[in-house]
Amino acid sequence: MSTRPPIAIANPWSHLRQLTPARIALGRAGASLPTEAQLDFQFAHAQARDAVHLTLDTGELAAQLQERGFNTLRLHSAATDRYIYLQRPDLGRRLDDASAERLGDHAQQHTAGYDLAIVIADGLSALAVQRHALPLLQRIEEQIEKDGWSLAPISLVQQGRVALGDEVGVRLKAKMVVMLLGERPGLSSPDSLGLYFTYAPKVGRTDADRNCISNIRLEGLSYNLAAHRLSHLMREACRRQLSGVSLKDEAEMLSLDDDTPRTSNFLLG
Question: Could you tell me if residue 140 is inside a domain?
């Protein structure tokens, strides 16, 4: 008596899935995906949607930062709520009137300005900010202290996009600005944090004027590596007085096992 073949047929490359979170070698059931793979996809899609709509609790984040000795400023973009933020990207790139006034008042009391302003915004994944902003900021602080940069109060922005950091930097009279915000969620990375660095910020800067360090999370780029690369960019930006496409990230990469620098090209090692 012959046995019926299984409905779901495994992919012969399925062992490669242990090496990557990418959806490869999922197998098939007829001309479709197996039920398990389909359910996994729907779950990942739901996680990504939840990350986009999750609200960033700036009050709790401010309290956590203040416990660690950071001064903070709580701000809001011109996008009044999440629905407007997703529909009107332009409003997420500038501050509302109350926040602009708050920064103006602070700048009047600190006329000398700062070397660096750090802005933390929800972006498209408040989950990424909740999980990774604080530990990354602690590594960045270590680098700032080594180089002797003066640091403005940390700006916590709801409904903010990357370009909003330029306005914050200008109003705080900062030489450099670093924006930390949640990146657009992927189906395997709903909590990816992005870092955007701009030298001499001003309203109207484009993405070509910034340097981006992306995929900062436990499964991606580590906090130590991200802070190390940012420190290199800041030093080179001040030396060359520019940032963006003209400033290449040539920092020596740290080993994943220790803090010993190594070349970024493993083929030359």
Answer: yes
